[in-house]
Amino acid sequence: MELEGFVSIITTCKGRMHHLEEALPTWTTQVGDNYEIIVVDYGDPDKSGDYAEELNHPRVRAVRHDAEGFNLSHARNLGALSASPKADTFLFMDADALMTNDSFVNYHRQKVMEGGAFVTGWGFGDGTGCCMVWRELFSRVRGYNEVVDGWGFDDVDFYWRIEAQGFEQRAFHNGIKTIKHDDEDRVRFYQNKNLHKTNKRNHRLIQRTFVSCIPEKF
């Protein structure tokens, strides 16, 4: 059953074309036509934006941003800024996350529609960085914190700020599976390759600084 409303599925890609080529086709098989898929090509050497357009799929489009390094928070925020005006829900998907159920989007949107909730994979297994959230709530917390540099805490900080607004975090179940890969894929475009150090550094940064390209009224 297709739910009312519209969902913008947003993913980012830089050097992860091998994952995106496997994951994105599983998103296009979702039931209904109440969604779009936005691929943010963040200076991707593999030209993921070209790949998205060459699919010639009516619900898939590309957003390009020229960048030497990689800031996942900024890339996600750019995707949100490019979402269709009719989208009332955002679903942030990692490029290595498969949808293994063709009702995945509608099934989890029902949880969001019940009120007082947003849905994530953090702490629950697969899809750690994936999140479904009301557009209005995303706007209220002004998206992801772009002060995060390198791997770690971009998603956790986002979830904490939503919970501070009184919303309950619920888990993705039924229909998501992460493609297994090593840490080299995670840190390829980060200056600091030490996951432990960047995670600790970002934790300190978010406690005192917030930076976002999302305007206060979005």
Your description of this structure?
The chain has one domain: Spore Coat Polysaccharide Biosynthesis Protein SpsA, Chain A, CATH 3.90.550. Helices cover 33% and strands 20% of the residues. It has helices spanning 17-27, 48-54, 72-81, 104-113, 135-140, 154-163, 183-187, 195-206, and strands spanning 7-13, 35-42, 60-65, 89-92, 97-99, 117-120, 131-134, 168-171, 176-178. Strands 3-2-1-4-7-6-8 form a 7-stranded mixed sheet, sandwiched between helices. A two-stranded antiparallel sheet has the order 5-9. The model has no long low-confidence stretch (mean pLDDT 87).
Structurally, the number of domains stands at 1
- Shape summary: globular
Gap from first CA to last CA: 30 Å
CATH topology: Spore Coat Polysaccharide Biosynthesis Protein SpsA, Chain A
Helicity range of the residues? 25-40%
Number of strands: 9
Spatial order of strands in the largest sheet:
3-2-1-4-7-6-8
Q: Tell me the CATH architecture.
A: Alpha-Beta Complex
Radius of gyration over alpha carbons? 16 Å
Number of continuous helical runs: 8
User: Which stretches are low in confidence, meaning pLDDT under 50 for 5 or more residues running?
Assistant: none
What is the CATH H-level superfamily?
Spore Coat Polysaccharide Biosynthesis Protein SpsA, Chain A
Query: What is the ordering of alpha helices and beta strands?
Result: EHEHEHEEHEEHHEEHH
**Sheet of most strands:** 7 strands, mixed
